[in-house]
Amino acid sequence: MCVYRYFLTFLFASIFCFNTYAAGDSTKTTNRKDTAKNHTIAVVPNKPPVAAGIAPKREFRGQWIATVVNIDWPSDVHLSVAKQQQELISLLDADQRAGINAVMLQVRPAADAFYAKSGEPWSRWLTGKQGMAPSPVYDPLEFAITEAHKRGMELHAWFNPYRATFDSNFKSLCSCHITNQSPSWFFTYGGIKLFNPGIPEVRDYIIRVILNVVDNYDIDGVHMDDYFYPYKIEGQKINDEQTFRTYGGEFTDIKDWRRNNVDLLIGALSDSIHAHKPFLKFGISPFGIWKNASQDPEGSDTHGGNSYYELYADTRKWLQQGWIDYVMPQIYWNIGYHLAPFENLVDWWSDNTYGRHLYIGQAPYRAFEPKSRPFHNPSEIPNQIRYLRGNPNVQGSSFFSANTLLKNPLGFADSLHFNFYKYPALPPPMPWLDSIPPNKPLNVVAKVGLKIVSLKWDIPAMAPDSEAVYGYVIYRFAASDSVNLENPKFILHIQYNDQTAYDDDTAESNKTYIYIVTAIDRLKNESDPSVKVTVTTNQ
To answer: Residues 430, 434, 436, CA angle at the centre, nearest 5°?
Structure first.
C-alpha cells in the first residue's frame, strides 16, 4: 500500500498541490495560426427524465486501469502470463459487479506498448525489461478487449502522447526506443524525456502510433489524459526555443505557439481517427480547470492550476471545434473545497460542452490519503454522483482507479453495486457520429426448460446505413409490470456480440414473464423493441 500511494502521489503531484495558485499570463496574445478545419457541432439532447431514485438508462460509467509503474495492472513485473491475465480478469469482474460499463486501459504509458502489434517496444511495466515480450507471447490489449466486451464494457485505449520516459534512467531504454532512434525529437524536463510537440515529425509519429491501434484492434475509443506540455517544476525550463525559431512561423509568442502545437495534434488526430473508423470515440481527460475566472472572465470560479496557461492545452477550444467526442475533466476535489469546489467545476464544464459529452473524473482513491479528510466521509463520492445526475448536461463519470474499486474503501464499490449502479446502463449515444439505429430483432421465441428460459431470435434486416448489428439488449418484465423500456430495472442482459440467443437462468418457478429484445449498433443506438414474448415457467 505504501508503494501504491508513493507512485500515485508522484504521478499526480502537480494536480494535488491545492495551495498553489496558477500564475496568470499577462502576455498579450496574438491570433493563433490554426490550420485544422472547423467542424459542425451537433446538439446532444438532454437526458430523458426518470423517476426519482431510478438511475438513468443511459450513463457512462467508467474506470481507469493504469499500467504505469504498475499502479493497477499488472501488480508486479515478474508475474507469469497466467497470473497477469487472472489479475486483469479479477479487475474486470470487480468492475462488472460494480456496474462499470467502460474501462480506459493505459496501453502506451511512455512511448512503449502493452500490445503486440506495435512499432514501439514492449513496456517494462509488463515484463520488467523494456523491449522484452511476455513469455509465452500474448497480446495484452487483445486479451483485455475480449474480456471487457464479454462483460458488456467498452474498452478505450489510453495513450500518453508526449511522455517518452518516466525517469532519468535512460541507459535502461531499449536501443529500439524512439528516444534512441530520433534523439533530436525530445527535450528533457524534470529528469524525464518528452516529445517536443513543436516538431511536425513528432506529430506525424504520434498519429501513426495511435492509428496503428485504431486499425488493428477492436477498441471502442481513443483516450488521452492531462499530460501535454509538462506540469511546471520550479527551476526547470522547457528547452524549445530553437524549435520555436525553426517552426514558429508568424507566431510572436512562444506560449501561443505551444498551444497551437497541441491544437494541431488534437485536430489532426480527430480527423484521422474518424476517417479510419467513423464509429470510434475520441476523448480526453484534462486537468479539472481550464482557466480561473481571475485569469479570464470565461473561466471557472476557482483558484488553482489550469490547463490553458500551464500545460498549453486549450481544452475548451477542442470542444468548441468538435475535435473530441467527450471530455472527462479530472475534478479530484471535494464538494465545497475552498480553492476548486467540485460543484463549481461541474457547473462550469456543463456550460462549456458545445454539444459533446461530459463525463466527470472522480477520485475515490483519495480515501486512502491521510490528509484528505473530506474523502474520509463515506458520503463524499455518493453525493458527487447525486450532484452529477442532477445536471442534464453531464452524461456520466469515471473513477481513478481500478485498484481502488477492488479495495472498496468506505464501501465505495458496494454503494455502486447496491445503489447507484444497481441496474445496467447503456453508454449514451453520440448522434454526431451516428444517429441511425438498427432494425428490431425478428421472430423472437422463448422456450421454458428446467430452471431456464431460452430465448432465440433472428438477425434484424440491415439498417438504412448498412451497419451490422453489434449487440442486443434483453428486457424482462413480470406479468404485473408496466412495460417501460426506459426503466433500466427491466434490463436483464446487455451483450456486445451478434449471437442471437440468450439463456435466462434467473427466472423463478411458476412465474409469468414478458421478454423483449432490442438490437444495438456500435455506438449503442438502440432499435425499436421486438414483439413481446410471454412465458410461464414450470413449478
So the answer is: 115
